[in-house]
């Protein structure tokens, strides 16, 4: 058995530190090596204990979690899992933290929700963080600009799936999309309150229109749709493609599920491209294979640039991925596959 993942718990609330510690100690593959009440204590504890992973509260005295995270990612990049309140303000800060470089996030227990339920996924998120590749943002190469002659195929549907590390990956790809980008549907594993904030953040920094998907919304070029977290899966349906939100059980432990989205696009009969990005587990592998078998083009993020090479690995090993590329090369490759001069390569 490999050594346990060592964790430092950082939260100003003694009660919350106790709940997080108890949730993590139930997993024999995790060792909580210490705790800290604020960033100043945490800084000394990091030096002394050298933990593999930090769980970090957003709101703390002396220095808030976001400021502390920025210092960590600049001076000593390491895996951080944010622990946030499930309020709108908490969600906005958490999305900013994921953009800075936090590996993942989980919500604190809402009133009336037992900590065992709220933190059910915490141990898996921490273990995935312990296996992740974290680097300073400046270490990531930038993608080349979009070709001025780029013309999208108006019938083309682009479907993207991501999980752990996906916020930063999606920002890298989508912030360079042109205003007339292909109709794009995305499932990113996130809690419900976080997806709305993430869509709003993307809408501010991207040229195309970005929104959280609504049931019945037309899927059209120049628009990017983010699957809502929590209670529904996102599908694409209809001769004139539209978003459909369905309330069914979790798939691969997730709702929304990447497989559900990819399967629906595979059935659409439209020209299509599927992309699977960083994330733990195997969600999306089967659906991406269905897209490829239906004539779609498929890409996967490579191991070296993935924060967690789980979902892309599973898809690649199943034969679902045509090409694996580093993150900075994915955007131009995606747009090339979705361009008008590629329309004849897939079913209309």
TrEMBL record:
Similarity-based family: Belongs to the CheB family.
Keyword Cytoplasm part of the UniProt annotation: yes
Organism whose genome encodes this protein: Brevundimonas lenta
Modified residues (4-aspartylphosphate): 57
PROSITE patterns documented for this protein: CHEB (PS50122), RESPONSE_REGULATORY (PS50110)
PTM comment: Phosphorylated by CheA. Phosphorylation of the N-terminal regulatory domain activates the methylesterase activity.
Boundaries of every Response regulatory domain copy: 6-123
Domain CheB-type methylesterase: 152-341
GO molecular function: phosphorelay response regulator activity; protein-glutamate methylesterase activity; protein-glutamine glutaminase activity
Pfam families, sorted: CheB_methylest, Response_reg
Family matches, as SUPFAM superfamilies: CheY-like, Methylesterase CheB, C-terminal domain
Annotated EC: 3.1.1.61, 3.5.1.44
Domain statement: Contains a C-terminal catalytic domain, and an N-terminal region which modulates catalytic activity.
Keywords in alphabetical order: Chemotaxis, Cytoplasm, Hydrolase, Phosphoprotein
Active site: 163, 189, 283
The protein, known as: Protein-glutamate methylesterase/protein-glutamine glutaminase
InterPro entries in alphabetical order: CheB-like (IPR008248), CheB_C (IPR035909), CheY-like_superfamily (IPR011006), Sig_transdc_resp-reg_Me-estase (IPR000673), Sig_transdc_resp-reg_receiver (IPR001789)
Gene Ontology cellular component annotations, sorted alphabetically: cytoplasm
Annotated catalysed reactions: [protein]-L-glutamate 5-O-methyl ester + H2O = L-glutamyl-[protein] + methanol + H(+); L-glutaminyl-[protein] + H2O = L-glutamyl-[protein] + NH4(+)
EC category name: hydrolase
Compartments (UniProt record): Cytoplasm
Biological process terms in GO annotation: chemotaxis
Function of the molecule: Involved in chemotaxis. Part of a chemotaxis signal transduction system that modulates chemotaxis in response to various stimuli. Catalyzes the demethylation of specific methylglutamate residues introduced into the chemoreceptors (methyl-accepting chemotaxis proteins or MCP) by CheR. Also mediates the irreversible deamidation of specific glutamine residues to glutamic acid.
């Amino acid at each position: 058995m490999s050594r346990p993942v060592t964790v430092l718990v950082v939260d100003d609330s003694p009660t919350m530190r106790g709940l997080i510690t108890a949730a993590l100690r139930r997993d024999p593959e995790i060792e909580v090596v210490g705790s800290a009440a604020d960033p100043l204590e945490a800084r000394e504890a990091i030096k002394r204990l050298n933990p593999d992973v930090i769980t970090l509260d957003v709101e703390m005295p002396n220095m808030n979690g976001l400021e502390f995270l920025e210092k960590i990612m600049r001076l000593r990049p390491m895996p951080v899992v944010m622990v946030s309140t499930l309020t709108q303000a908490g969600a906005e800060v958490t999305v900013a933290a994921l953009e800075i470089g936090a590996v993942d996030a989980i919500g604190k227990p809402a009133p009336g929700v037992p900590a065992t339920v709220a933190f059910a996924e915490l141990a898996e998120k921490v273990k995935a963080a312990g296996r992740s590749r974290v680097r300073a943002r400046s270490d990531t190469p930038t993608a080349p600009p979009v070709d001025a002659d780029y013309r999208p195929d108006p019938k083309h549907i682009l479907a993207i799936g991501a999980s752990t590390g996906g916020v930063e990956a999606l920002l890298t790809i989508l912030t360079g999309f042109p205003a007339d980008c292909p109709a794009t549907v995305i499932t990113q594993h996130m809690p419900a309150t976080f997806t709305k904030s993430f869509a709003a953040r993307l809408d501010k920094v991207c040229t195309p229109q970005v929104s959280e998907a609504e049931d019945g919304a037309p899927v059209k070029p120049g628009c990017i749709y983010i699957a809502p977290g929590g209670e529904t899966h996102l599908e694409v349906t209809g001769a004139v493609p539209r978003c459909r939100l369905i309330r069914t059980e979790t798939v691969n432990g997730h709702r929304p599920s990447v497989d559900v989205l990819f399967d629906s696009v595979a059935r659409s009969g439209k020209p299509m491209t599927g992309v699977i990005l960083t994330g733990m587990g195997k969600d999306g592998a089967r659906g991406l294979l269905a897209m490829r078998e239906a004539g779609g083009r498929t890409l996967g993020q490579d191991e070296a640039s993935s924060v967690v090479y789980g979902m892309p690995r599973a898809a690649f090993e199943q034969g679902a991925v045509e090409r694996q590329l580093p993150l900075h090369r994915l955007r131009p490759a995606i747009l090339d596959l979705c361009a008008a001069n590629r329309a004849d390569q897939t079913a209309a």
